[in-house]
Amino acid sequence: MNGRAGLALLVATLLLFSASGCRQETGDQAKAADGLAFSIRYDASLTEQPQDGRLLLMLSTHADDEPRFLVGISPDTQLIFGRNVENWAGDEAMTVDETAPGFPLVDLTKVPAGTYYAQALLNRYTDFRLASGQVVSLPPDRGEGQKWNRKPGNFYSSPVEVTLGETGKGHFELVMDQKIPDIVPPADTEFVKHVRLRSERLSAFWGEDVFLGAHVLLPAGFSKHPEARYPLMVFHGHFPADFGDFRTEPPDPDLQPDYSERFGVEGYNRIRQQEAWKFYQQWIGEEFPRFLIIEIQHPTPYYDDSYAVNSANQGPYGDAINYELIPFIEEQFRGIGEGWARFTYGGSTGGWEAMATQVFYPDEFNGAFIACPDPIDFRAYVTTNIYEDDNAYYYDSEFRDLPRPGHRDTLGHVFAMQYDYNRFEAVLGDKSRSGQQYDIWEATYSPMGADGYPARLWDKETGEIDHDVAAHWKEHYDLRHILERDWATLGPKLEGKLHIYVGDMDNYYLNNAVYLTEQFLEQTRDPHYAGEVDYGDRAEHCWNGDHDNPNHISRLRYNTLYLPKILERIEKTAPEGADLASWRY
Hints:
Layout: H1 3-15, H2 17-21, E1 36-42, E2 51-60, E3 79-88, E4 94-96, E5 102-103, E6 114-124, E7 126-129, E8 135-138, E9 155-156, E10 160-164, E11 170-176, E12 178-179, E13 192-198, H3 200-206, E14 211-217, E15 232-236, E16 259-260, E17 265-266, H4 268-283, E18 292-297, E19 310-311, E20 315-316, H5 317-332, E21 342-347, H6 349-360, E22 368-371, E23 394-395, E24 402-403, E25 405-408, E26 414-417, H7 418-428, H8 437-445, H9 467-477, H10 479-485, H11 487-494, E27 498-503, H12 511-523, E28 532-536, H13 551-554, H14 558-561, H15 563-573
Helix pairs in contact: 10-11
């Protein structure tokens, strides 16, 4: 047994994932009298129905904010522990003890003595009866974009100060007596309209009504030009609460400046308001072309969006968006409704979605502007080659344990390993139910398992890769592989449409997959792909092709950044007799 295998076995023994994930009793009869434990109840006023879900315990060393907002992957994360509950009546105490997996500490036995603020939260699950016949228990989105710590309807307790002694023992009680309130939907304005459409395809898959939403930015003069028909720009990204970075009023002069830790910029809130106001002024300018822009809301029980493709576990979101939602919007707001007049763009998740949409629906769009995309070649799935590597957490080495990094800064300093991300997810939920990044990739790309949940690409405890699942990913969602496999038919439909941008120091190593994709694209013939691939020097996630401005500015300018190329593409490729005039008033 080599060093990595020995360590993996030790980790598997310590974590006791299977023990915590399989506990199904309605109440804990035995208390952890010999160690640290928290008994948790929920107040009867919250509900009369027994609850299923993920019970989470957070411990924080400071009171700067509620503990539920202080956990994550960053170096200053506080502590979180989790376990499943099923058919739980609130008057029965559930115990979080040493059997519950934790992050970043393995379990409660590793918590140092000291004073903490303790808080409990229940991420509530609902049963979905799928068209396949399986029943899965998942956290439904409730208008917040799958954020467990802000999800309306979730139960939680107020933070309570507790002191842990040197013995590592103690028993504490927490009562969840609060419920996160509902989201207030945004109101329509002169320029921004909000639409919601019941999807026939998705409702059939999930066994209940499923709605798609969108925020629609209307062009200036929309009501004054009823004869105009408009091109459509689809801005893909994470769940948008409203149409972002568009402001019809000047910046607030009384706004107190904040500090962006990510960008190291003072007063970033002021900068965002200024950029949003500037965009509005451009939008209504006499020389600005008139078109529709939409941001789509398509959260699933697995994540804040569906990745905009058809999926065994999430349903036919690609078809629902492109054949139900988009035609509905174009009909309601006078879109041209033809592929030559549709474009898509986005960054990160939105970058992958923009590329996947163009590849899987090549006739429906005339160009994709793909910024810092999630892995588009799974030979560089962050820092793992899922086809050739055997372990996702460690490089192959006979005598050393070399962990694979998961996050770096622009100088290459690493503060999170690939294992860390997956460990955090395993605490938040089993069966790909964490609502986090690696789990949504599984929910999107994997086949459905026999239990109705996504098949694991790798074992969450050990990192051992299932190459049968990897083979499924390759044939269905590895965008570079699909391009190469199908270039004879796809190439003529994609000529000039693929534009890919990424920083060469992307925080998540996403540039590596772009390098591999570029190698193929530059070799294409009959036809040559005739697009572009560009890299930002020492640029982090999410560089989008702007060589003139820093990332904290360029990320606010997606809706104008690609416009010159879009207009050039329209003029070059519009069919004879196409409407190139009604929307240029």
